[in-house]
Write a structure and sequence with these properties.
By secondary structure, the protein is of the alpha+beta class. It has six helices and four strands; from the N terminus they run H-H-H-H-E-E-E-H-E-H.
């Protein structure tokens, strides 16, 4: 618990030596405990919060569209990355282990029905190509449907 609830004086995280000295345990014991619980206090990750003052409202709108889409509406998420699938697998993923890759079932829950894939491949990712893609969506969506398009803050999506 000391690893998670405190830090060594003047430090940002515990080292095995520092925690061993403070707790009276050996460095190997500290190392084994950290390994058993998947603790790696020496590793750090970064994140950045959006400076958008309307972030909360936008997130609520997006989650609302996914959770409760309007009747006769098409809700799409657009991204320039390939091989990204929003799948809800029927079983939990089995985690990565030494010598073994992450494993998941071959089947997944369909939270909506995709009848047609609308996609384009472009060498560049400028607003011009994005506009061509939007025109392709508009041309293929049946009349009477609202289109709700969810896009990230990529510069291409912000061009007037």
């Amino acid at each position: 618990m000391q690893t998670l609830e405190s830090t060594s004086r003047g430090q940002t995280h515990w080292s095995t030596r520092g925690l061993a000295k403070a707790s009276g345990l050996s460095r190997m014991t500290i190392s084994r405990v950290w390994h058993a619980f998947g603790l790696q206090p020496h590793r750090a990750d970064t994140f950045k919060l959006s400076p958008d003052p309307q972030l909360i409202e936008k997130v609520r709108d997006i989650v609302g569209l996914y959770m409760n889409p309007p009747e006769h509406a098409l809700v799409c998420c657009v991204d320039e990355k390939s091989q990204i699938q929003a799948l809800d697998y029927t079983q939990p993923l089995l985690p990565l282990r030494p010598g073994q890759v992450e494993r998941g079932t071959h089947d997944y829950k369909r939270n909506g029905t995709t009848r047609r894939v609308i996609g384009q491949l472009h060498r560049r990712h400028r607003s011009r190509e994005f506009r061509q893609f939007l025109n392709a969506i508009e041309a293929q969506v049946p009349a009477g449907f609202e289109v709700h398009l969810i896009a990230d803050n990529y510069g291409t999506h912000k061009t007037a």
